[in-house]
Design brief:
mainly alpha, SMc04008-like fold
Amino acid sequence: MSLDSSAQTAIEAAAFRRLLQHLREHPEVQNIELMITADFCRNCLAKWLTEAAQQAGEPLDESAAREWVYGEPYARWKEKFQREATPEQLEALRQRQSKTDT
């Protein structure tokens, strides 16, 4: 496949916007579950956005990036959707992180 860089960027941007939409439509999927299964979560996406903005010389703080990802202020999303992690989830996350640390 051969795309020019602007076409590739546009396609990647569209796919990223679709990923954000999908995550917003499924708030029942907890961040800890994403971390356990995929080793990233919504907060990771916000950090990656902040890092990309910095590399591009654009100001974007983590709070604004989280609002971009969550579609609303993080505190509001957290209050509405985030559940307390179970001991089993915390153990699964610990095990996942120990695998990725090696």
